[in-house]
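Dear V.,

Thank you for sending over the compound details. I've combined the ligand you provided, MTE, with the protein sequence from our construct and run the structure prediction for the complex. I'm sharing the raw inputs here so there's no ambiguity about protonation or stereochemistry in the SMILES, which I know was a concern on your side last time.
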Amino acid sequence: MVRATRSTLSRLRPSSVGPVIEDAFTSPLHDERLATVLGITLGVTFTTCFATGLISHGLQHPPSWFRWPARPVNLYRVTQGLHVASGIVSIPLLLAKLWVVYPRFWTWPPLRDVTHAVERISLIPLVGGALFQLFTGTVNIAYWYRPMPFFFTVAHFWVAWITIGALLIHIAAKLTTARSALANHPMAAESPGQGREDHGLSRRGFMGAVAATGGVLALTMTGDTIAPLDRLAVLAPRRVRHGPQHLPVNRSATEADVVARAQDPGYRLVVEGRVSNPYTLTLRELRAMPQHSAGLPITCVEGWSTAARWRGVPVRDLLARAGVGPHARVRVQSLETNGTYAHSILDALHTEDRDTMLALELNGEPLDLDHGFPCRLITPNRAGVLQTKWVSRLVVQ
Ligand SMILES: Nc1nc2c(c(=O)[nH]1)N[C@H]1C(S)=C(S)[C@@H](COP(=O)(O)O)O[C@H]1N2
Ligand SMILES: [Mo]
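Below is the predicted structure of the protein with MTE bound, written out as structure tokens.
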């Protein structure tokens, strides 16, 4: 008799019968179709996050084959905005998905056969990796490094590969289940007696709530990247118009320990390396060179970005003066001596672009000390970490 009840039940709700309590997990929201819809949505947000993350990583640690164009100037702004927004939207999606499927973690027997075992074991890197990525990404955009006793970018990069690998295994293992879950009519998939009349939230309502949470989080945390939405970004760690010259500062001159050297009248810009005619310039001489102006964004990898007007000397003019031809690779060195971002490498595509310059002015005023006075690198379509401030040296490689 007991057996009959158990087998009837397991036919109706196979995922909710385990060794623990027979009638646990009665919510109709623990169902295959909802799990599938959430899974597909997460597949899209995770893939977006992964692809845009690879671009960002490629820019910061370029392999020899990696080419990233200087135009369109706002492309990286879009990809990095998508990276952070898709990560944030994934948080409520992942929590919802885990809640919908958790009764299945108690199904009995835990491992049925080899395929089932592979599928279940791959959940460890999948869920673990996903939680790790979303947590470290969030604390990174919040500038809270204490919970990360490792170098963020390296860990975030490698765990991304593990997570995506586990995701592919998961998709392959679940393809048939997902297909049949989607083929079933939503109402038909609900078990008798488990209809929406005795449970407040319908599947559609549940998905709506998850989507709304994701939307609100993305807007309030990253909305400031899109100027008209600036006011809504109440949770954003950086407010994009707050700071000297209406631009936030990521590392101030005091933090970088460059205040004295940046204001020293003895400051010289040095152009050297593989050049036929190395030279130095005083700030006055740099100001006397033909100036160029361009509207270019600063896009921090941490998700904020803002457009600004820059005026200064194109790097290619400085190189031509040293007798350097096109296609040069240049190391741009800061007065700062020991920061992670004290130098950056300019590849040929960016050196050649006329908007790549050593800026002396920002939004119509001489550059603020915190924005890189006496001069800072500004390039189209690159990450903020590569926009070196307080530049002292161009070394042609
Ligand atoms: N020398 C130096 N340049 C630097 C940095 C730094 O720490 N040191 N930070 C970079 C980062 S992470 C960003 S996002 C931009 C921000 O420029 P801003 O402070 O003028 O807005 O500067 C970049 N240039
Ligand atoms: Mo940054």
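A first observation: The CA atoms of residues 291 and 313 lie 5 Å apart.

Warm regards,
I. M.
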